[in-house]
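Work Package 3 (structural annotation) set out to generate three-dimensional models for the target panel prioritized at the project kickoff. During this period the team completed the workflow that converts sequence records into discrete structure tokens, so that structures can be stored uniformly alongside our sequence database. As a representative example, we reproduce one entry of 456 residues exactly as it appears in the project archive.
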Amino acid sequence: MSVSVLDYIPSTEHAAIYAGTSTYDASSAIQSANDDGRGVYAPGKRYYMLSGVDLTGPLTGDGASITEFVAGAAMDYMFSVSGQHNDIARVKLTGGSLAKVGILVDNSNGFTLRQADIGGMKWDGVQFSFAFDNNNSSEISNCVFSASGTSYSTGTATNSANGTVVTFSGAPDLTTLGLRPNIDLVKVGTSPATSIVSVSTNTITVSQAIAAANTGAAFQILQGFHINILTNHDNAVIRVKGVEFLGCKGAFIRDNATSGAHIEDCIFEGSQAYAVVVGFVPSEIFVNGHCNINAYVEGCPDGAVLLESAMNPVISLAALEDGFALEQMIRIPNRALVSRPRFSRGGVSAVGDTAALSDLTTANCSFGTRFDVQQSANNLVLMLPPLTGEEVLMLTSTCDMSIVVQLMNLGGRTVTFKTSDGFAVNGVAGSTGVAFNTNYRRLECRFTGWSQWVVA
């Protein structure tokens, strides 16, 4: 049976805790309850903390909307977790931009976090520690993460074209900001964010060359992630399931080295850069088998996924907000160490067989979509998406992307596949295209290494 934190807090403080107004430092009481060895139960509403607590057993509250732990002073973490098969559940952690990390997981196989709300951390909501390992088979499920991380943007930034060194003017001493090499991000001008490799007083070296030259440009240094899986060799099989991620600075999840991170049925909304960052450069360690399954992504201006180093990643995006370009779905920088990624995007678009679309003569395809073409009043032209040089490189050397077209009952009409950028279709000039008129046939459209589309 768990031990109540209230057993270690003076009874005169209980009313304020239940009322949610307590400013009594409950840190030592929580630690004492943990040290009893039977697990910690936190009834009531608000526990104020002025220092971090080291958990070696489970922590349970009355629900994330009821039991809240609030950081009231600067601290490295609110809770650290060690030991086997520990569980934190039914609580809310509020960092107030004072706690660097909400939960530090260090050497805790089988750790679980469930039905919790984590927000307001200066750096990370949950951090799988760099200094320790053996955080195998951990799971985070049915949680909400919000409003963590810190950004710096005072001053201006300058870099040469395709340069990796950024010089800052009017900014504070960068070495005083606690920036973490190979973890935190920086973005300059309109270029997408990239990882920080090293920091001096007024310069930052980045992992990927910044293509455009900038002089006196606006910048953002982005520090913090909702879930940060730091580098070691033994964070194996970490599962994130049914989690809603809201409002983060760098990315919602940074996975620097696992042997199988599975992210399932999650929602990502409103980071300042990416939804997920996988791996880092320079690195001899590959993230192996990272999966992002059935994720909805919205409001991540630099892209859904940044792959900096990974082996055999499988990325599946169930849905994206309107307006996501191809390069925003998955970004693989030119110097990235990425091996054999597979990528797909869900979504269904129906053409024809409705009053609004029955007279449609032309439709534009986009990657990862499916078109069900049914009986229509007109022949139909499907325009395959135009490609830039960067996108051609991605499609021919790294990614598995396709467009699926299901021909239903065409009523004697034809469907013709064309391009507008000069690439051929099945060996025929793209402006002429290739026509099909077979009922009940599934066609898959792929761009190949021979600079043409194959529809078959």
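The two ends are 63 Å apart (CA to CA).
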